[in-house]
Specification:
2 copies of one chain form a homodimer. Chain A is of the alpha/beta class and 359 residues long. Helix content of chain A is 44%, strand content 19%. Chain A has 13 helices and 12 strands. The N and C termini of chain A lie close together (10 Å). At the A-B interface, α6, α7, α8, α9 and α10 of A face α6, α7, α8, α9 and α10 of B.
Chain lengths: 359, 359
């Protein structure tokens, strides 16, 4: 694969040097970046330096190209604003995107969320390979500077992650479904099972592997959840309501002895579980899709989230600028098998893409 | 450890020769038993013989000591009645106990439920070590013949399982909590996540390890669940109602932005998950508790379920008969560290236990 973005930037900052920030630092340095680390806790940032996750500590003396904000969710807005003072582009790794993206509303900020690890664990667990093969969501919006997106995207790709673009609202609803509500449900089930445990404690030995699998996430650090629940309150509330409705239906099927209804529900769930898509790098032949983009806002977000909606894996992305302003050509590397689907969607939206095979 | 029950019986039958029945056959034969296999499907029982899980096929010519019924839940009552014609003692491995034990109501039948594997998977997956270290519940009741319990218990122990005695009702409520309702909740969550998957299918790549762990059980065979839900309808309904109440409370905490309430709930769940007891063999020094038992029904169920309630692990159990009738002495091998707790509970119920250390 040719690497259109190979002449990338080389100076980064990481704010918040726990497990995630430390891993970003290690992976950036392994990819040749110079990295400075910033943390409200001097001990933690020194630990990150001792582990080789950062080259320097504290606010950089000159401008940096990209800053990764990896603080707890509640501290992200202030850290992003601070970073915008000295960093050309800024991104973050928080679990909730819509309120943050709306609050920051700066074209130089791109919201992000790697689906790996957790915000507040210790830097001791940091690893340069934490993101290898992981899915890393970016949430460009209409006001996002295309160059901000292209640079952040290329930086994240260089960490080994598969990048997909999703709108902030779609991201927040989906993580409510696949992360936040499952966590709350697991915790609720675990609390239910432990009720009356004084008399029947020994009975919990009956809990077999399925229950242990299901409640494992309830053993995680609770401290991060009040912030996440506050930030993603709307989506979590809506998904919990849907779960309550669906569980009530299941309860009614059991009470009515409706065997066919139960079997149908469980068959659908099995089919869905078995076809759960697996994150992973592109495996097929690649092609380049060139999309001339007009001088209007939102084109970048429109094209990249369209790719995600169509299940088109963008392997690489570059922007060829015209001599003036944001118009130019988006150059996207995608799997060749997906080009027809992708160009169909692009044409339907008024774009004029052209395709070149890389075989 | 001395083995009070070493002169055990030697002829067994297994009805239903799938994964569970096949594993029981393999483990019994490895422990020196002669085993005949009975199955409505001639192909399956021949496969079990070919795998070495049974010595013979079909109804035994002479009486057998213990029959294990390992059919799907709906077929158990008829199989137990059939087995009582040619077998001295009968037990089963079904997931629901109270309705079955009430329906059979025979002193020679002891309900059972090994917490390992599933009723309907293929004999090809059978293993002689499936039960090694697994918890195997037996549900003696007032009318259970103490010798039926002692023999079934010793047979199950010889398969490598840790036996605990639980009342049928307590068993059914607990498996609703740790197995049936978690399964239904996982399936419901999975169905929820797959809604609208046509447009947002690629987004399910965001589902990280926690969600995959939580929904893994939803990938299991749905066909066994309508029977289980029908048999355990009351307990499942009650536990689903408790789950709905608890999830509604969680939803209200999120909606109200109640950080302290959420943190408290999640902290309790984490503490419960981290202290989930692990099934396993006795590790401490052992002691023998001898309990003279009066000539009245229910003593065996009373003593053994008391041990379970107190968290006392019964490592071995034997009955020393008096010259007439059911009165005699229960000889229980337990961990020495638990003897004080156990004898305290026994004294409180009017028994007169004595303790001998095995050190």
């Amino acid at each position: 694969v040719s690497e259109p973005s190979s002449e990338g930037p080389s100076r980064a900052a990481v704010i918040g040097t726990g497990l995630m920030g430390g891993s970003i630092g290690l992976a950036l340095r392994a990819a040749g970046w110079w990295v400075t680390g910033i943390d409200s806790d001097p001990t933690r940032v020194e630990a990150a330096r001792a582990l080789g996750a950062v080259d320097a500590v504290g606010e950089p003396s000159g401008p940096v190209d990209v800053t990764f904000v990896a603080t707890p969710v509640g501290a992200i807005p202030a850290a992003v604003r601070y970073a915008l003072d000295f960093s050309r582009w800024v991104t973050d790794v928080g679990s909730v995107k819509a309120p943050l993206v709306a609050e920051i509303a700066d074209p130089r900020f791109v919201g992000g969320h790697p689906m790996a690890g957790s915000e507040q664990e210790g830097v001791e667990g940091a690893s340069a390979t934490l993101f290898t093969g992981a899915t890393w969501v970016l949430t460009p919006v209409e006001s996002t500077d295309p160059d901000a997106y292209a640079t952040v995207r290329s930086s994240v790709s260089s960490l080994g992650a598969d990048v997909i673009a999703v709108s902030p609202d779609a991201h927040d609803e989906l993580v409510a479904v696949v992360s936040h509500v499952p966590h709350l449900a697991a915790a609720t089930l675990m609390a239910l099972a432990s009720e009356g445990a004084d008399e029947h404690r020994a009975l919990l030995r009956l809990a077999a592997g399925g229950f242990r699998d299901m409640t494992r996430i309830a053993a995680g650090n609770p401290a991060i959840w009040p912030d996440i629940c506050a930030a993603n309150r709307t989506a979590i509330g809506a998904v919990l309501d849907r779960l309550l409705d669906a569980l009530t239906t299941t309860r009614d099927l059991v009470a009515a002895g409706d065997r066919d209804g139960l079997l149908d529900t469980l068959e659908r769930a099995r089919a869905a579980r078995r076809s759960l898509p697996v994150a992973g790098p592109a495996t097929g032949e690649l092609a380049v899709v060139r999309v001339p983009v007009p001088d209007r806002p939102g084109v970048l977000a429109d094209v990249t989230t369209l790719a995600t909606d169509l299940g088109v894996n963008i392997v690489d992305l570059e922007i060829a600028h015209s001599s003036e302003g944001p118009a130019g050509v988006l150059i996207l590397v995608v799997e060749e098998s997906a080009t027809e689907r992708f160009t169909g969607g692009l044409l339907a939206r008024g774009y004029r893409p052209s395709v070149t095979s890389l075989r």
